[in-house]
Specification:
alpha+beta, Alpha-Beta Plaits, 2 domains, nine-stranded mixed sheet, two-stranded antiparallel sheet, 5 helices, elongated, disordered N terminus
């Protein structure tokens, strides 16, 4: 796609879709912290990023809804608009050299543009439950899956919101981990308001007191559209 500079000179723009991970201590970074890190990283990497027009131009970086603070992820997405073409693999390497430890660019691909969020309808999550044997967890999961609804409440920026955790859960399985206990593997639809993994945990706690009150390690494994075999990555 070509845009026109003020002087009339055409500029070729390129849209890139970036998949990145939040790992280690960076899982405690907020979405705003990650956005700032990427803006600094893009500048340090010397990428020819496009800017918005107006009195306060901003780099053209579009973010999909990020995993909440305290949650790790292997499947976060953003899109970049560049003013000249660059090789996707080179962009990945340059960003990784410029970003802080714990934010790792996994893949970069040329894209048609537009917000990635419009093509992300579900996520696959893993929730590690150290110290909990599968035999204790399986009956709770079965009881939850048998519910017709599982209402939960969460305080958001728009006030207290009520949502149905059961309606958002596509699948929920218990994985055996011989070293530390077990883990939940679940696919959750993206809803409005969004149902998060901690909402599902609260719904499971309403069913049984098996789950401790503390926050277990939650990781987003995949994000994309729903397919017959689960979540299909972008």
């Amino acid at each position: 796609m070509d845009v026109i500079r003020n002087g009339g000179e055409p500029v070729t723009t390129q849209h890139l879709l970036v998949r990145y991970a939040k790992r280690g201590k960076m899982r405690f970074a907020s979405h705003l912290d990650v956005a700032r890190a990427f803006e600094r990283g893009v500048r340090r990497a010397g990428l020819p990023i496009a800017y918005s027009a107006g009195f306060t131009p901003h780099p053209k970086i579009s973010y999909a809804g990020g995993a909440q603070t305290g949650v790790a992820s292997e499947a976060e997405y953003l899109s970049l608009t560049l003013t000249s073409r660059a090789e996707a693999d080179a962009v990945r390497d340059r960003l990784n050299a410029a970003l802080p430890d714990g934010i790792d660019v996994i893949a970069v691909a040329e894209d048609s543009g537009g917000l990635p969020a419009s093509r992300l309808s579900a996520s696959e999550w893993q929730i590690a439950l150290p110290g909990l044997p599968p035999d204790n967890v399986v009956p709770v999961v079965q009881k939850f899956l048998a519910l017709t609804e599982a209402p939960v409440e969460r305080l958001t920026s728009k006030g207290m919101r009520r949502m149905d955790a059961r309606a958002a859960v596509v699948s929920l399985d218990v994985l055996d981990d011989l070293n530390s206990g077990c883990a939940l593997l679940m696919v959750v639809r993206h809803t409005a308001p969004s149902v998060r993994p901690d909402d599902v945990l609260n719904a499971l706690r309403d069913v049984s007191d098996v789950f401790p009150a503390g926050q277990p390690l939650i990781t987003r494994l995949a994000q994309g559209s729903l397919g017959e075999s689960g979540v299909v990555r972008l």
